[in-house]
Design a protein that fits this description.
The protein has 299 residues and is of the alpha+beta class. The protein folds into 2 domains: 217 residues, Glutamine Phosphoribosylpyrophosphate, subunit 1, domain 1 (4-Layer Sandwich); 67 residues, Alpha-Beta Plaits. The strands form 3 sheets. A 7-stranded antiparallel sheet has the order 7-2-8-1-13-12-14, covered by helices on one side. It has a 4-stranded antiparallel sheet with strand order 4-5-3-6, with helices on one face. It is globular.
């Protein structure tokens, strides 16, 4: 049992409220996953300044100042900045995303990259979700989209690396409630194709499968349809990239999910109470996603 929430804003005047709305939603599903929590925020100017690459990482034993200095030395022609967000550091620089990711991995061998892209920051931590939201400074975040997860571990250890969202492609993230029965088989296939994994978490297998489909040229909706064809188990998935936001459930819709939609926003949560505080909820279209039907919204 885990908790999922997500908010996709259609109305730009709401962008400054993204963090405060997402914090309230996250805290409402704390009981579903008290082990750890994570969040992906799209478009926050602190973490992902416009026109700059961004990498989120768990730095291990390295201090923020040491991370900035080491990465800056690897990219001497780039302006590298670092922002602390709880247990996560977010670096941004005026260079290509791939160059910044390579520099981080080269300069800080013990670091764990939690997310990367032009618009996303992925923050993770072990502890009570409400405490982590405060440490992240989530309530002050801005942007057009956010995805969050509270975890009750079933398939792997309680570590920051096992925390959702899993972000394994540029500006992509996936959160998952449930379990994949055949994840080991699909992991072996992906490893044989040259893919590397960061954890033993079954959800990471789903994230990397989706990332592989997106890299092959499929859109998010088609990628999730392919996942439904290949993966066995019980699941509700919320998957996002910089322009899309999508929800899908397993063939018998075993895991809970509620979607609310207005002209100003689209939101999804494991329980309705996480949606109840959203502005205009009283006039929203509210429904439960049908089994194996992909619901996708474009920015």
């Amino acid at each position: 049992m885990c908790g999922i929430v997500g908010l996709h804003l259609r109305e730009p005047s709401l962008y400054p409220q993204l963090g405060s709305l997402l914090t309230r939603m996250l805290c409402e599903v704390t009981e579903r996953g008290p082990d750890s929590a994570g969040v992906a925020v799209y478009g926050d100017p602190r973490w992902s300044p416009r026109g700059r690459a961004s990498v989120s990482l768990l730095p291990g034993a390295a201090a923020a100042t040491d991370v900035a200095a080491a990465v800056g030395a690897t990219l001497p022609d780039a302006d590298v900045q670092v922002v602390a967000a709880g247990q996560t550091l977010v670096l941004n620089a005026d260079c290509a995303v791939d160059d910044l990711v390579s520099a981080v991995r080269s300069a800080i061998p013990g670091a764990f990259v939690t997310g990367f892209g032009a618009d996303v920051a992925v923050l993770k931590g072990v502890g009570h979700p409400q405490t982590l939201a405060t440490e992240f400074g989530l309530a002050g975040a801005q942007g057009w989209q956010g995805v969050a997860h509270t975890r009750m571990a079933t398939e792997s250890a309680v570590t920051p690396q096992g925390t959702h969202p899993f972000s394994v492609g540029p500006d992509q993230c996936l959160v998952h409630n449930g379990s994949f029965a055949n994840h080991a088989t699909i992991r072996r296939e992906l490893v044989a194709a040259g893919m590397e994994f960061d954890s033993e978490n079954d959800s990471e297998v789903g994230a990397r499968f989706v990332a592989a489909q997106l890299a092959a040229g499929y859109d998010l909706e088609k990628s999730l349809k392919l996942l439904c064809e290949r993966f066995d188990g019980f699941y509700t998935l919320l998957v996002a990239n910089r322009d899309s936001f999508a929800v899908v459930r397993d063939a018998i819709a075993c895991k809970p999910a509620v979607v609310a939609e207005t002209r100003q926003w689209v939101a999804m949560a494991s329980e309705y109470r996480a949606l109840a505080g959203l502005p205009g909820i009283e006039s929203a279209r509210i429904f439960e996603p049908e089994p194996e039907e992909v619901y996708a919204w474009q920015r």
